[in-house]
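ok so for the tutorial part 2 we go from a plain amino acid sequence to predicted structure tokens. step 1 is just haveing the sequence, like this:
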Amino acid sequence: MTLEVPAAFAERYAQLVDDAPAFFEAMLTPLPKSFRVNTLKATAETVAPRFAEYGIGIKQTAWYSDAFVSDNPALGSTLEHFLGAIYIQELTSMLPPLLIRSELQTAATVLDACAAPGSKTTQLSALMNNRGTIVANDVEYERIKPLKFNLERSGTLNAVVTNYDLRSFPQMSFEVALLDAPCTSEGIFRKNPRQMLSWSPKRFAPSAHRQKQLILKTFDLLADGGTLIYSTCTFAPEENEAVIDYLLNERPAELEQVKIPNFRLMPGITTWQNQTFDERVSMTARALPHHNDTGGFFLARIRK
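step 2 — the prediction. this is what the tokens look like for a chain of 304 residues:
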């Protein structure tokens, strides 16, 4: 059976993207394998020659010197993966920590609000050189085990793990917070295109309702002057720009421009269907699959 983009999905998003045919073609194209060099244990200069010895072709990305792509599925069978010298991670998943790279150099307290399985937590730790303290929280107890395993394998020493529903998280104060919110996950359909067959717009409303609760709580946990990164792996404006617009109406939040050198991003939209968002929402960003050969992602950089 030839897989096709569902008609309702195509009709919805043709109006949102800049090049609909390229977008939908990318959605049906397998996602490249990718990994990040874990700088707590290795460097790109030491890892690359090892993969050459294995006969595994890898290519460094132009926007992150520790990120590589490969067509070889054997990445997970290498000694480097087993020892935690590399972390197999989707490229767009690496973007949120990069947006707070400068803050992480001096931050003493960082919250990873929805941390499991630990991709971003371990990246945060690497960018912090194992200094400061990361609180890695996740609501699902069964996801705590893989989170702890990945922290241990990567050599992350500056993280503590908590198991709260974020909405009832104890009142604390963090200099930096990352909320990679649970979402409808349309941006990872390239990983398993058959998931598109069960796609339904009915999922947007309950997901967005929870995201609005989570972003308010995360913002309230932020110290004055602190930075919050909100991200999702979905295309739905209901879960992206609408959530940021809600925050701007409910809290004294300011948006800052999302920029990643050498990585193409599309500005956030300010109108969708019958809604008009705060003009500042255009400072958010969307990563589209056909622009950088990645999954889909949404990013917002927020200052308290």
